[in-house]
Request: fold
Amino acid sequence: MGLLSKKDTALILDPLADNNPITIQVLGICSALAITAELKASIVMSISVLFVLGVGNVVISLMRNIIPSKIRIIVQLIVVATLVIIVDLVLKAFAYELSKTLSVFVGLIITNCIIMGRFEAFALGNGPWRSFLDGIGNSLGYAAILIIVGFFRELLGSGTLLGIPVLGDPIEKTGLYAIGYENNGFMLLSPMALIVVGIIIWVQRSRNKALIEEA
Amino acid sequence: MEHVELFFKSVFIDNMVFATFLGMCSYLAVSKKVSTAVGLGAAVIFVLAVTVPLNWLLDQYILKEGALVWLGEEFASYDLSFLSFIMFIATIATMVQLVEIIVEKFSPALYNSLGIFLPLIAVNCAILGGSLFMQSREIPSLGLSLTYGIGSGIGWFLAILAIAAIREKIRYSAVPPALRGLGITFIITGLMAIGFMSFGGMLTGGDEKKEEAPKVEAQLEKEKATETEKEIVAVNTNTDQ
Reply:
C-alpha cells in the first residue's frame, strides 16, 4: 500500500460496511430501490454513480476555496447535472435498452442524496485525492447494497442472473423447477425492494451491535 | 374529468413514495415526528405545484424537439432535450430559493414552521422526479401539469404523514433491537407500498364498470319500458275487451 496510507484505505473500506451510505447514513435510497429488479440495471446504476461521485468529489474539492458558501448548493447541482448528462448520453449511445429501463432514474442521480451528502460532508473540506477516495469508497458501498438487492430480487423473482437462467427452465420444468419450485413474482414488485433492504439492515445490525439505534 | 382522473392517479396509483420511491431520503429522515412531517409535506406540495408547471413551460417552449419554432422557422429542427436535467434542476434550485425569500417576507409564521425544510427540498428527488415524470409521460397541458404537481405533492404528504404517525406509535412496541429505527421503517414502508398497490385497479376498474354499467342500466330500463308498454297494451286490450 505505497500509494494509500492507512487513513486513505479507511476512506475506501469504511463505507463498505460500518459506515455504509445506504444502511447507516440513509443516503441515496430512492434509486437503490427503484431499479434493483434486475442485476444488470443495478450494476450499471452503480457504475454511473461511481463515475459521478468520483469525478464530482474531485471537482468540488478543487473548487472548494472559490465557491461562495451561499450559492454552493446551486454550484454543486450544476456540477452534478453536467456529469449526469454525460452519463445519460453515454448510456443512450451504448446501452439504449438499458437506458430505457432506468428511465428517469439516471436523471435522478442529480438529486441522489449520496452525492450532495458527500459533497457537503467531505469534498468541501478535504483535498482532491482524499475526496476522490471518499467518493470511490462511498459509491462502492452503495454498489454493494444495490448488487446484493438486485441479486436476490432477480434470482428469486425470475430465476435468472444477468438474464441467464440459473435455476433451470420454468416452462420445460428442468432443474429446480422439476421438483415443484416456482418463481416468486412478488420479488419483482417494488415493495419487495424495501423489505429486502430492511432485512439487509437487520442482518448487518445483528452482526454489529454497535450500530443498533436507541429506541 | 381529465383533471380529477390525473389527480387521483398521481395521489394514489403513482404515489411518489410507494410506487416510484422518490424523496425517500427526506421521507426517512424527517418522519420521526408528525409535526415536522406535516411541515415538510406542505413545503413539498407547494414547491411541486410551482416547479412542475414552470418546467412544463420550459420543456414545451425551449427544450423539446421543435419547441423553438416560435423564434423563427430556422429554429424548428433544434432539439435541446439533452439540457433538460440542468435546466430543471436550475429552475428548482432558484424557485426554492425564491419561495424561501417570499415566504420569509410575507409570512414569518409559515417560514418558521417550514424554515429548515425549504433548502432541503431543492435536493429532494420527489421534486426533480415530478418534473422528469411530467416530461416522460408527456402531460399535454399547463393546467394538467399543475394538477399533476399538486397531486404528486399530496401523495407524498399523505405518505410521510402516515409513516410519521406509525413511527410515533411504534415506540411503545417491542421491536427486535437490530430492527429498531431504520430497519423497521423500511419494512413498514414496504408493507404500506403493498397496500397502495391495491389502488392500482382503481381507475381501470372504474372505466370498465362505467362502460358496462350504463349498458346494463339502459337494458334494464328498456326492458322495464317494454314491460310497462306490454302491460299498458295488455291493460288496454283488456279494457277493450
The two ends of chain A are 41 Å apart (CA to CA).
